[in-house]
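F.,

This is the one I mentioned.
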């Protein structure tokens, strides 16, 4: 069992399967199995709509009490370290901290300090986004019932995307066949071992899952921003109205959102019949319930706080 949830590296295919089953059970109305009272705090040092509200909804549905935490009004602004902030929250009775932070792998130093509370990574820079990964797996599983042999195209702002990095690791381990597209400069070396780069027009007709990624303008260099053309990107790497009919009828369109409408996909395709974008968000609540329940169960908390890094 794991006591913190920070990276795809921790998730074996068996754990992924267990969490998908539990999330599907929650979606079907299953009752949570957690000793209450239990206290959570969500620390978001980067903007978020979905992940923040989805974790809070999951915590409330599990019966947890959620303490509000706004970094801008906290003593972090006076120089208190993140580790001391978490020690403070633990000292007043918070048992789990859900953290989004701009620094890649910020959680590694926290885990090394063995802080007396559970840590869930809600996104670290361009590193990992494990809860998005798990809700993506749930959405794919709901549609196809398996992963082995599924053709998944991951397209867009690959190098800045923590979603791409978490999802590609796990989908690869589960036997999916990955291909990538988007601006070639963003297909960096780390993607090569998970699948080849192909033009968008070649990927669209063959995939079962088309996973589009947001262009993360906030992470682009000044030179990248100056060069960027919305129309050119949409034509070369977006799902346009012209390209959409080439998708298999059984294929689904995914996007972690927020969507840049008219860039990653045409405005009218966001809610098209093959889009699962809002279903991903809906599933996220149930998956986050399963993830939190998994790390907060008494058997997960007993004994030493060993972190199950398996890859
Ligand atoms: N998908 C996702 O992480 O969205 P937010 O940034 O709104 O949380």
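My design for it:
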């Amino acid at each position: 069992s794991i006591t913190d949830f920070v990276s795809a590296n921790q998730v074996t295919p068996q754990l992924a399967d267990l969490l998908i089953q539990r999330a599907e059970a929650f979606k079907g109305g299953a009752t949570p199995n957690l000793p209450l009272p239990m206290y959570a705090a969500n620390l978001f040092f980067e903007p978020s709509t979905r992940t923040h509200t989805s974790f809070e909804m999951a915590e409330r549905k599990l019966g947890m009490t959620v303490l509000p935490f706004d970094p801008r009004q906290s003593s972090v602004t006076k120089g208190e370290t993140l580790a001391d902030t978490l020690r403070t929250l633990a000292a007043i009775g918070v048992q789990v901290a859900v953290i989004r932070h701009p620094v890649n792998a910020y959680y590694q130093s926290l885990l090394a300090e063995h802080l007396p509370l559970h840590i869930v990574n809600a996104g670290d820079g361009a590193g990992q986004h494990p809860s998005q990964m798990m809700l993506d797996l749930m959405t794919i599983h709901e549609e196809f019932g398996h992963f082995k042999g599924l053709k998944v195209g991951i397209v867009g702002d690959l190098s800045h995307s923590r979603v791409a990095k978490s999802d590609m690791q796990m989908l690869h381990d589960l036997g999916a066949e990955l291909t990538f597209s988007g601006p070639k400069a963003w297909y960096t070396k780390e993607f090569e071992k998970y699948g080849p780069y192909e033009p968008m027009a070649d990927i669209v007709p063959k995939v079962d899952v088309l996973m589009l990624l947001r262009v993360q303008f906030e992470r682009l260099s000044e030179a990248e921003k100056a060069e960027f053309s919305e129309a050119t990107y949409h034509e070369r790497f977006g799902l346009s109205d012209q390209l959409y009919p080439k998708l298999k009828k059984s294929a689904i369109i995914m996007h972690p959102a927020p969507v840049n409408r008219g860039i990653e996909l045409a405005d009218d395709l966001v809610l098209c019949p093959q889009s699962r974008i809002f279903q991903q968000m809906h599933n996220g609540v149930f998956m986050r319930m399963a993830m939190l329940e998994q790390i907060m169960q008494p058997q997960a908390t007993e004994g030493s706080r060993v972190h199950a890094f398996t890859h």
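The two ends are 15 Å apart (CA to CA).

Talk soon.
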